[in-house]
Design brief:
seven-stranded antiparallel β-sheet; about 180 residues; transmembrane helix; 7 strands; single chain; membrane; alpha+beta; Alpha-D-Glucose-1,6-Bisphosphate, Chain A, domain 4
Length: about 180
């Protein structure tokens, strides 16, 4: 009897893991909002990794995060490495493409708590008296990502953080 229960549980676990393997691994999370400021006022805050610390919700997770800046600010190749607490994690973010006052594309490499290789994009589009700021992150979570997203709504978690970033950035650029 005990063997049947154990075998049954192993079959259920195997079926669950097989189901997880069939889930989509690629993801793209995006939020867009209008900010009452021109693109040229917003752009320095999204293209300079040091200024990003003034509004990024991710850096506020650990105020004691260790950061190192490499390269020229506002340039392709500019990079920030970081190591924070268990909530902030560790990794690097590097500018891989810039179109002044329009686009900043970054490569986010996480080493802790889980390894990840994602693309983050900030896009500015003039709209009315302001600027539409679109913030996205895309990548492939692999098997572990598939498993995590089965239990946790990562899209909501990430987009909520993006929205907090919008509020932080608005507080800076809409006032100055």
């Amino acid at each position: 009897m005990l063997i049947k229960v154990v075998v049954g549980m192993l079959v259920v676990v195997a079926l669950f893991l097989a189901f997880i393997a069939t889930r989509k691994g690629e993801f793209r999370y995006e939020v867009s909002e209008v900010i009452a400021a021109p693109p040229e006022k917003i752009f320095p805050y999204i293209s300079d990794l040091k200024l990003g610390g003034e509004w990024s919700p991710f850096e506020k997770v650990d105020p004691n995060m260790k950061k190192e800046f490499i390269g020229e600010p506002n340039q392709v190749g500019s990079k920030m490495t970081f190591a924070g607490n268990k909530d902030a994690g560790a990794g690097s973010i590097e500018i891989i493409r810039i179109i002044p006052n329009e686009l900043v594309q970054l490569r986010l490499l996480m080493t802790e708590p889980l390894a990840a290789d994602n693309i983050v994009e900030y896009r500015l589009t003039p709209e009315g008296q302001g600027t539409r700021f679109s913030w996205s992150m895309s990548g492939n979570g692999g098997y572990v990502g598939k498993l995590v997203t089965f239990f946790i709504d990562c899209e909501k978690m990430v987009t909520d953080q993006f929205r907090q970033g919008f509020e932080n950035l608005k507080a800076i650029v809409e006032v100055k």
